[in-house]
Amino acid sequence: MRDVTEILAEAGLPTAVAKPLDGGFSNETYRVSGGPVEAVLRLNGHQNDALGLSRTAEAAAVRAAAARGIAPRVLAAGADHLLTELVPGPLLTPEQCHEPRYLRAMAHVLAEVHAIEGVDRRCDPFWLVRTYLDGARKLGVPMPDGLDGVLHEVDVIEARAEARGDGMAYCHNDFYRFNVIADDGRLTLLDWELSGVGNVYFDLATPAFHEGCTPEEEHVLIEAYFGEYDDQHAAALHDFKYLNMVREVGWALLHAGLDAARPDVEHVNHSLDYAESARWFLGRILAGHVTARDA
Q1: Which of 99, 127, 136, 179 has the highest Cβ tally under 10 A?
Q2: Topology (CATH) of 89-286
Q3: Angstrom distance (rounded) from CA 274 to CA 25
Q4: Residues 74-106: tens digit of each pLDDT
Q5: Which segments of the protein form a coiled coil according to its record (predicted)?
């Protein structure tokens, strides 16, 4: 990765100061002070080398989302970085993810995301899972026992989604609470790196799987998004909770391979053990769980 000061100088901020932010499991992020506005700089990691998603289209998506009031304003963008205006406010909390008010707010902000048009960037979740795993294999990462059966279930879920005619729209595809600023019920979404046209249930299922939502909470989320609740919506959400779990396995295996290929690189934002994370999520799946925590 290029030096932070070099990128800031190119952006017209030669005297700005950058300090590492927590998180950023795929990239490095910094809070930038000393410019006209407080900002956040993301240095792009190597995940995109495997995915081949357009950085230009990502920046266009963030600009489109910012125009809808659901993303930060883009200040500068390049192949190896994205500089956005800092959005004040706390991150969405685990507790808020179970409150009806915020479940409805999540449904409403996702409806805004899914209304984005004109950005030519596809990131279907089935493609995403398979591309992560293909990238991990190319890096020499051994595939864990039990994964073949899980991938067969992914094929079954994909066939069911096609038979249902699930809605396709521009999706965020990384709708975790640590990517959401919550300011008195108003949500702003960060980290659009994986965004693209995909299946709307994948976005809806992300908080449901990650936060261990109860069936009653999922009912609130589905009804707020679709205006109704029925068994087909519930079944689709369950399918994509499973797919979210598998995505975690593929993502972690890819990043384990990327780390092994660059043993001299140190992370500035976290100390996550990617290989252990992959084993943990796969173990949960094989044990019959479709959530990252018990509801």
Answers
A1: 136
A2: Aminoglycoside 3'-phosphotransferase; Chain: A, domain 2 (3.90.1200)
A3: 10
A4: 999 999 999 999 999 999 999 999 999 999 999
A5: none
The pTM of this model reads: 0.93
- Tell whether the model's pLDDT for residue 199 goes beyond 80: yes
